[in-house]
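[Automated response] Your request has been received and processed.

Submitted sequence:
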Amino acid sequence: MSATIRRVHTLHVLPSLPEGLEQLREIALDLHWTWNFDAIDLFRRLDHILWREVGHNPMRLLAEISQERLQEAAEDEGFLSHLERVRRDFQSYREERTWYQATFNNHENLKVIYLSAEFGLHECLPVYSGGLGLLAGDHLKAASDLGVPMVGMGLFYQHGYFHQYLNADGWQQELYPEVEIPSEPMVLVRGEDGTPLEISVQVGPREVKLHIWKVIVGRVDLYLLDTNVLSNHPEDRGITDTLYGGDTEKRIQQEIVLGIGGYRALQALGIEGSIFHMNEGHSAFIALERIRQLMAEHNLTFEEAREATRAGHVFTTHTPVPAGIDRFGLELMDRYFQEFWPTLGLGRDQFLALGGANAKKEDSSFNMATLAIGLSAFTNGVSKLHGMVSRKMWRELWPDLPEDEVPIRSVTNGIHARSWISPEMSLLLERYLGPNWQENPLDRQMWRGVREISTEELWRTRVRLRERLITFARHRLRWQLTRRGESITDVELGGEVLDMNTLTIGFARRFATYKRASLLFADKDRLIRLLTDPDRPIQLILAGKAHPKDDPGKNIIREIIHFARDERLRNRIVFLEDYDINVARYMVQGCDLWLNTPRRPYEASGTSGMKAAVNGVLHCSTLDGWWSEAYDREIGWAIGGGEEYEDFDYQDRVESETLYDLLEEEIVPLFYTRDRARVAREWTEMIKRMLEKVCPVFFTTRMVSEYAQEAYIPNHERVETLREEDFKRAKNLTAWKKRIRKAWGEIKVLEVKTHGEFELRVGDRVPVEATVQLGSLKPEDVQVEVFLGRMAGDRELKAGKGLRMELAGQKDGTATYKAEIVCEESGHQGFALRVLPQHEDLTNPLDLGLVTWE
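Generated structure:
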């Protein structure tokens, strides 16, 4: 009878790197290798089979490779030369002069802290689920490339996001395997005494200890917080166990750790940020912690500390619907913050109001986006359309402003091209555009060079990428069928699916119902005819996960699996399980057409189409997210004309018919129209036009440079100004706002005079004079504008812009203002007078929501 072993002490034994290979571990720990093809080839060269088996994780590769193979590599002059080349490339990357240094060399003390609940950097670090995390990962990589001084802050999830597999019926199942920490490309941050650096944060009734993991992303460091500390209560150790797992209480705990714990971690690390960029509202509690500490350290009031910190807060919302925003009930807020709000000098009602909650209504909730917007100087959506949607969503916060003037901007997302482009396409672009084809974020002139790319060469590149995708899909399907317990015959047949020469359509994204993965399957008979056409067939590769609690999304996957079992379609439809960065990379590189069918306007951005575009994959989508601003008929296809419907069933019928029409009448014929060399010349010419238009705009180099120029640098300058002389200007601004709010009701537009003719022509000038009652306020406290725009009805201005009026005189609490309207456009137009607050330290005169209209 064997003894029961009650406790096992684990030892993680790494191979000893022979002399000459010591740099391998350093390279493996810097995720710059994830967008350096030569570094990836270096690790693959060690053992290409093991490289695939360890999920392209160089740390696992070095942990599992044999000592004998390492010794062989140490004696291989070719390998050593390759290693030295990669080492020099990494060193050069870190030392070269960057775009940021060349553009903002007088802002060396800027430090941007980028906070996100997830970061999608590579498949080997599973702390991401989808688009939000991939955008965050690409943001850090672009900041590294451009040299923007940035630090990332997130959470380390012991089980990451779930792994997906389908049962025999096609129903999604979830697995949560534990991440093997020693094999991850990160290191535990330790103090001077060698012990783990530990911080603490109050989470409800208990103090929770946090450890910090460091991930190197080129020139940027990312820190991940971990509550799995032995000294913590067992429940608290699980706070950071899964991404988007658990209930609402788990979510508020994670967000306290990310926001409040994140700020304390930065202090423990000795990192002083000046700009704090909140990627979605998950980290918004950091704003409260910064206010609390500033009040305690500098004896400021809540409002003074709010002004001093608000200038340094940037908030990016990714949510196009109210239901997608984190909200916490009052009972939860009481449980977790009843000891916090007194430290802000606030009562319960005042504190809850920061999140838009009404303390008198039990069913009210605390809105994290409302909190972030109210405490940020710069708020933006992630596409032009999403900016419009966001202004409509949050108009209630500025009820006296026209919707177009709600102070929420848009910075359209982009993708980190080198992380997503295939080596073949990258070499092609280097050959025709030069080696630095993505270094300058604004160089549209350079991209005209794609017109010179050989059509035959581009087509052959696209054929090779399709063939690689199909080979990958076959291997993946065989693995899926084997794991599912299918027969040997079915497994072997899985290795024969798809055709190397058939138009391949990709659809890969989260299976939320609004993304409408089922749209292409709306008319099954019509789809079958397209799939089985003997001369011009199509084939489909699909991938994506439904949220574990989203049964309607899971059912869409199940219906697709059942449909694909039709004997006529077995070789034409493949669903790839467990969608991750690796699967995405093959798909965006290898498909011929990228299909996106969200119900407008619910797709905030949709960056997968951008990843496909840089690889020469044409796009077909509803006019939502990024495609609504990128599309023209010369570079791809639009499903509909941007209509929005109240009847969703009717919308699905109309748009599915439109999709089938596009496939039958335009897309399929264009793909199969070949010249004598069997090249789809017009298809390939469309790819060139798409590359020229899309690439200069929809890269993260453009996106991050836009954030730097419009948010980071201006706000950093304001932060420094407000902190001068013991926060003198922050205090003055606070006092001014208090005075303005108290006296604003005294303002009235008494009289407006104009001398223009009723019928005018373009170029005519119309003088306007206004008399405004200021009461106890002074002319320097306000700005008076003519708000000019097009008329939407008899008395309604649809949209417009403000023309500032000049002060002409003042007497006894009134002031006279004059301006001259220039008629620049024809049509039915109108204007109205309005008065706005004015102060040199006010970020935007519209922020206060104080407007007096004529």
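Summary generated for your ticket: The chain has four domains: 23-95, 108-410, 498-697, 747-853. The first strand starts at residue 112 and ends at 115.
If you did not submit this request, please reply to this message.
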